[in-house]
Every structure is written in C-alpha cells, then in structure tokens.
Design brief:
The chain has helices at about 5-20, 25-40, 45-70, 80-95. By secondary structure, the chain is an all-alpha fold. The two termini are about 15 Å apart.
C-alpha cells in the first residue's frame, strides 16, 4: 500500500468515524483503524534511505567476509567484533523497517 492509498484509507475511515448516523460501535472501530493504518507508512526521506542503505551494506559485507574467510585455508574464525557489527546492523534494519506496534511513529 503506497502513501497515497494510506491517506485515502485514513480519510475514508475518518469520514465514517465522524458520521453521526453510523452506530457508535462502528465509529469507534473506524477511528481505531484509522490510527492503525496511519502508522503503516514508512518515512521516505534522503537520510532514512541513506541509513537503510548503509546498514544493509554493512550486514551484507559481514556475511561476505564470513564466507570469504571460510574459504581461506588456515584462517582464524570470524572475529566477534565483526559478528557484533553485523548483528547490530540487521537488528537496526529490522527496527527501522518494521511497523510500530502501538506508538505514533
């Protein structure tokens, strides 16, 4: 669902929530749904894109480094610092791209 569709859906749900002829139970559900749908959009700014790209590259480079070290004879294990950096990058990506469970953003 793109940003335009999200805004159209939120507007439609707000119209239902503000209509006095609709049952109170339905109006309350529409208002809650509008708040949920409004949180579905992911910010699309240059800084956000740069952060996502850099974290993705760090995660991929960590995997590539581990695979490369696996094929080098007599190489040591992958350093724990590299594993930690890769894990942190993947966790940060998941946190940035996952929708907020209950907050406003």
């Amino acid at each position: 669902m793109n940003k335009f569709e999200v805004f159209k859906t939120v507007d439609a749900l707000n119209l239902i929530a503000d209509d006095p002829e609709v049952k109170e139970e339905t109006r309350k559900a529409a208002k809650e749904a509008a708040g949920t749908v409004a949180r579905w959009t992911i910010p699309d700014t240059k800084v956000y894109r740069i952060v996502v790209w850099v974290l993705g590259i760090v995660a991929l480079m960590t995997v590539a480094g581990g695979i490369a070290l696996a094929f080098v004879p007599n190489s040591a294990d992958l350093p724990q610092a590299v594993v930690s950096i890769g894990s942190a990058a993947v966790g940060a990506l998941a946190g940035l791209l996952a929708p907020s469970p209950g907050g406003d953003g």
